[in-house]
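Checked the freezer inventory, then went back to the computational side. Two predictions to log before the end of the day. The first one is the construct we discussed on Monday; recording sequence and tokens without edits.
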Amino acid sequence: RMEGQGSYTLPTGTEYRGELKDGMFHGEGELLFPDGGTYRALWHRGVPTQGKYTFADGLKYEDKKWHYCDGYDRRFYTEICFGLKAAGISQLTNLDPPRKIPQGCYDCGDGFYNPETRVVVDHKLRFLRNADDDEHEWIIRTCRKAGYKTTEHKPKP
């Protein structure tokens, strides 16, 4: 079994780096997710006892007093860090400009969803999961779809 310092890559592409004991995450270690997020934690027999998640854009998750993108402040993290754009210029996602969505698909955050096949793929078009009925309905109802036209800001001559 794995012991000491090391790294282990899961089939999803997520990598663990840190201390191992008896084949399990044990001690200080971090998970590095393919999308760029990280979870640093203190592990005990494979279970995190305390930890902090940081999104790929540097936003740190807070489980208490979470104010990011709530009902009172709907700005994206990049808008919080770099300010709002001028009136009439909309930012549709935290990533600006937003990713190009494949035709007939939806952007569901961690990837793209094809409602015909009911498959979610990551942004590099690698399989993530099959959507169940609840996820399908949520994506169709709330997510941005390919072909959605936005008005470009054009400065006055």
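The second is the one RB wanted added to the comparison set:
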Amino acid sequence: MPHPVQKDGCSCGVIVVEMARAVMEAFPQLPQMQFETTRKAMGESRRNMGLQVLEASVFDEETCSMCGADRPPGEAPANTDWIQCDKCDRWFHAVCLTMDPRTLQELKQKQWLCVL
């Protein structure tokens, strides 16, 4: 199967995903593997894949978007503080963000944006 060739030393994962996507979209036929492998194109593909994964993520107000559980991991108390991102509406245990109570209260008074 002819396919684009990796042009850098860090985009093999992106290329594998692009190839898998082409195979799945063409199945049961053989795919036409046509995508750019420049650094810029690979960066855009990597970013788009990340956004696609985040947008497809299903989190609710009963699970932490950091640890994926309703209770914080380890020795943290089951009844813990939470904070919600003002942009994506995901919820986080303060403990999972290593956020002390004072910082948590300060951030709850203004807009807080998570790393996602």
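For RB: The chain is about 35% helix and 5% strand. The chain has a mean pLDDT of 87. Let me know if you want it refolded.
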